[in-house]
Design goal:
The chain is of the alpha/beta class. A 5-stranded mixed β-sheet has the order 2-1-3-4-5.
Length: about 170
């Protein structure tokens, strides 16, 4: 997946920043199918900052990884609260300083989870040291899933860059 030069530069700066600060990151992704972790691992030196990541498409595997079943039942799998639970869970599981959780629908009805808006994605960047949740949501309307995933990827990397560099 080709990213614009500006996003590629930010991604390199993110990895460099994490490495210099001796910080780590992990992701739990659903609708993006590992696009975030893939982008991170494309940067030389990523092995110094990436502890672990998981792609959890199904509710069952979100729950097996430690996402609260009660959160999914109360707020649905497509919610800010589930993205938060994913981000904190992966941060704790992987003993990472930062966790990213992503859940949502990319242009397809989900027969197992009929609730939620099509094309809406929920994102959380969790900062373990501060026990702080940085929540975002967005809508994507590209022609295909690959372009939707790229748009989410660029959005997440921009938000992560903004958060780390402030």
């Amino acid at each position: 997946m080709f990213l614009g030069d500006n996003v590629e530069d930010k991604l390199k700066k993110i990895v460099k920043f994490l490495k210099e600060k001796n910080k780590t990151i992990s992701t739990m992704e659903s609708c993006t199918g590992g696009a975030i972790v893939n982008a991170i691992t494309n940067v030389p030196g990523a092995s110094n900052v990436l502890n672990f990541s998981a792609v959890t498409y199904s509710n069952d595997f979100k729950i097996k990884m430690g996402v609260s079943e009660e959160v999914i039942d109360k707020y649905t799998v497509y919610s800010k609260e589930t993205a938060r639970s994913m981000a904190k869970t992966i941060s704790n599981y992987a003993m990472s300083d930062y966790g990213i959780g992503i859940t949502g629908k990319l242009g397809k009805r989900d027969p197992n989870n009929k609730c939620g808006n099509n094309n809406q994605v929920f994102i959380c960047i969790y900062d373990k040291r501060l026990d702080k949740y940085n929540d975002f949501d967005m809508f994507v309307y590209k022609i295909n899933r690959r372009d939707d995933k790229k748009e989410v990827l660029e959005f997440v990397l921009n938000k992560l860059f903004e958060y780390l560099m402030k």
